[in-house]
Amino acid sequence: MLEYDGSGFAGWQQQAHGRTVEAEVKRALRELTGKDHVVYAAGRTDAGAHAEGQVVNFRFEGRITAPRLVAALNARLPDDVAARSAEVVPDDFHARYSAKWRRYRYRYLDRPARPALERGRCWHMPARLDVEAMSMAARPLVGKHDWTSYCSASEPARSRVREMRSVKVERRGDFVELELVAEGFLRGLARGIAGALAEVGRGRKPPQSVGEVLRAKDRRLAPKTAPPGGLTLMEVIY
């Protein structure tokens, strides 16, 4: 299991240009064993998004035991990525395809003063959000839906249906936290929902608008996507 601060990354997935978490993990494994590894992740987090419970799996080409592997990797990973735990899994385990649910959290900070300690880890809004209205707006999101209105247009049209198990909006001090649990998250989906609920919380849209946009299956109707810094992959459930 990994945690990382996504502020300095172009996302999880390795690419030709831009620093990625996947590339850093592969580099650390190569330094440790002298061999290249194929690494699978439970979720391909967006550029700027974070993780506290990212699960990855790979066939380890080395002789170090699982408990010692954590320390060995952390000695080679950059400061913004850390291995939290490691264990041996069955050969048919796959971090992505074996997962049943993923839990994401989006954090809003709705106080007048901008954040210092939590900068890059929340979406700052100087006016107080209406949490009750946001909770009401979130109710139609639970269930199996076509998420065309809220996901990236780059997602294939034939595979935009996912089940959302739960959506919760709660206040925790100066923060408002949105928790989403779904079988899988399309690119931009969590941030699209966070952006829509923010419009309701600010009083710019009525609560029923979130469900109306969902049912319309029209990306052009969706509000602006929330910034990535407020989003964290919290847990993968198997």
Description:
With 238 residues, the chain is α+β, with helices and mostly antiparallel strands. It is 22% helix and 24% strand. It folds into 2 domains: 2-83, 2-Layer Sandwich (Alpha-Beta Plaits), CATH 3.30.70; 101-232, Alpha-Beta Plaits (2-Layer Sandwich), CATH 3.30.70. It has helices at residues 21-33, 66-74, 131-138, 189-201, 208-216, and strands at residues 2-4, 40-41, 50-54, 56-57, 81-83, 101-109, 123-124, 143-146, 161-172, 175-182, 231-237. A hairpin with a 2-residue loop joins strand 9 and strand 10 (175-182). Helix 3 (131-138) crosses helix 4. The radius of gyration is 19 Å and the shape is globular.
Helix and strand layout, with pairings?
Layout: E1 2-4, H1 21-33, E2 40-41, E3 50-54, E4 56-57, H2 66-74, E5 81-83, E6 101-109, E7 123-124, H3 131-138, E8 143-146, E9 161-172, E10 175-182, H4 189-201, H5 208-216, E11 231-237
Parallel strand pairs: 3-11, 6-7
Antiparallel strand pairs: 1-3, 1-5, 2-4, 6-10, 6-11, 8-9, 9-10
Would you summarize the structure shown here?
This protein has 238 residues and is α+β, with helices and mostly antiparallel strands. The protein contains five helices and eleven strands; from the N terminus they run βαβββαβββαβββααβ.
Distance between the termini: 13 Å
Main CATH class of the largest domain: Alpha Beta
Report the C-alpha radius of gyration, rounded. 19 Å
Low-pLDDT runs: none
Chain-averaged pLDDT: 96
Tell me the β content: 15-25%
- Which bin fits the share of residues in helices? 10-25%
Which CATH-level-2 architecture of the largest domain? 2-Layer Sandwich
Number of helices: 5
Total DSSP E strands: 11
N-to-C order of helices and strands: EHEEEHEEEHEEEHHE
CATH topology of the largest domain, by name, is Alpha-Beta Plaits
CATH superfamily heading of the largest domain:
Pseudouridine synthase I, catalytic domain, C-terminal subdomain
Shape from CA axes? globular
